[in-house]
Every structure is written in structure tokens, then in C-alpha cells.
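Minutes, project huddle
Topic: does the predicted pose make sense with phosphoenolpyruvate bound?
PN asked that the exact inputs be recorded in the minutes so nobody has to dig through chat later. Recorded below.
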Amino acid sequence: MILPKNNRLTPEQLAEITAIVAEFDCKIQPIIGAIRTIYAIVGDERDELMINRLEGLDYVDRIDRIQSPFKLMDRRSELANGKLTLGGVTLGQELFVIAGQCTIDPKNPNYFFETAQAVKEAGAHLLRGGVWKPRSNPYTFQGDTKSLEILMEASRRTGLPVDTEVMEEEHIKLALDAGVTLLQVGARNALNYSLLRAIGRALGGRTDRAVLLKRSLHMGAINEFISAAEYIAAFGNPNIILCPRGTSPTLDGYRNHPDESITPLLKEKTWAAVVVDPSHSVGKAAYVPACALAAVAYGADGLCIESHINPSHGIGDDPKQALSPEALAKTIRQAKLLWKMKHETAGA
Ligand code: PEP
Ligand code: MN
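Predicted holo structure (C-alpha cells), as shared on screen:
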């Protein structure tokens, strides 16, 4: 990673370093921050001659060489100094809450409009709504592009930015063009490297958009999760949130094996914000509040909670795991209190 002396390189300087690294089969990927731009060397950056030539340039402050499979997402990376603000919240400074339906029902848009208003009143900062759904059963409702319009209309009515899952390249473009702020990569696609690359490419340089990367059901080592995020960051947009959501095999009685406890382990390795999804972790509304509070106790920066104005009339996961607006409001209230307690205690 190249850190220039000034806030950014001039086009001539960029051309010069691009030509140098090209001799060593590497590329330069600018990572544009609000104040300063840094320049990742994409490729094998271990060649001493290349580093010596770059360090010799009078406009280069220093070269950071982090020996890590995820050198951009690594805690030691310069990107650790960045900040991500969504829905008016700078992550890490107060508890950040995403809430809304698992799935938007295109036949009953009013449910979603009412849910959107209710989650806003409950204290959510960003509205979630599934447009396209990855379903284990191919004969169940798979989502509908028509729901994207409903999602954006709810965003306009409430003023909340929105999150939706994208499963294919076509979804990425549709969602970005419609104005979706947070693209969600679901648990089933968290190891789909071509989708991760496509998202990275589409978001490169678009600092107004971010990605919520769920943990795969089958991810083993923590490094595998962070490396998946690196696929996206390598194209120049570091606005990435990691989202533990439960893994396989399931814990008897829960939908998955709740994994909010990996939060401190992630934070030891990466600077990325961690937003836990308690809804898919436990899979039943009655257990969601405790899992949400546990996530905050483990140091999560935020929560992503499924909620529906009338869960029994929902589709997808909503009848089982969506919180009512009242339960959501109570959970957010308690989670905010706990977040404050945790962050006010010195050394917590
Ligand atoms: C969802 O958020 O509704 C969803 C399908 O999540 P996951 O990818 O974690 O299963
Ligand atoms: Mn769901």
C-alpha cells in the first residue's frame, strides 16, 4: 500500500507508479477516502526492487507492507483510520441498527410501508427488505424485481436508506441504479468469489454505497470470512460490514449455530465494523432479543434484525423470526443501553 505525502497523487505521479508496478506484474488500485486517497498494490508486492523504486520517489511518504492474506482489511492497514457513516450513524460511535422485513411481499406493499414506518419509530437507522430471495426450496417464493420499487418508495416515505440482498450481477446494477445504499451478500453467496468481485467492481470508487457481507453457513476459519471481504475491498471501496448470522451445523433448537461470539475475534484481526444478525442465528422471534443483546455484549457495532408490522401475515422468514414493532423497539432500547454501558467502561 502506497501512502503519498500529499492527500492524493497527481495524474502524472499515478501514471509513474502504475508503470513501475506494471514491470513487476502488479496493478495500482486507488482507495478513495473522504480526505486522502491511498494506493493498494494489487499482486505480489514482495519484490524488493519494486519497493525500493517506489520508496525512492520523492512524493511517496511510505509503503506499508502487511504480510496478511487480507492486507486491506487487516487491522494494521491504513484503512483502519477510515470511518463509515450510514443512516446518520458513524459506526463504532453509537449502536447502528438495520431492521425490516425478511421479504417484501409484492402483493401487499402496504405491509412493507407500515413496517418501514414502525422500524423507524422503533429506532432503526436503515431499512432492510428482501427483493430477491435465496430459498433452499426451489418451489417457494423466490422474490420479485417489482419489490425493488416498493423498497425505494418506503425509503422515500421514511427517509431511511435501504439494504437488500443481491445474488446476481444483474441485481447489483438494478439495486444501485434504484438507489439502494447497502448491498447485502447473503450467507449462501459469501464464498461466491465471482459475485464478490462483481460487487467490488460495481462499487469501486462509489463511497456513498456499502456492503453487508454475511458469514457463510460453511465458513470455517475467521480468515476465510475476512478474505471474502478483501475480494470486495480490492476494487477500491472499503465500506464493508461483516455480519455473523449463525453457521452450520445448527445448535439443537436454533436455526443455526449462533456465532455472535466471534465478534471480538474479528475485531482483533480487522478494522471492519461488525453488525450481527440475531434473526437468522436463532431463527425464532422469541430468542432474537437475547441473541441481539449478547451480540452487543460481545462488542458488535450494530444489529440487523428482521421485523414485520404483522409477522403472521409475512412471507419468507417473517412468520417465524420477525419481531413485532413493540418487541423491536424494546430490543433496540435495551441494546442501546447495553452498548453505552459497554463502551463507557474503561478498557471494555
Ligand atoms: C436474509 O437476510 O433474509 C437472508 C436470506 O439471510 P442469510 O443470507 O443470512 O440467510
Ligand atoms: Mn430472512
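Observations noted during the meeting:
- The domain at 85-344 is CATH 3.20.20.70 (TIM Barrel).
- The mean pLDDT is 95.
No decisions taken; revisit at the next huddle.
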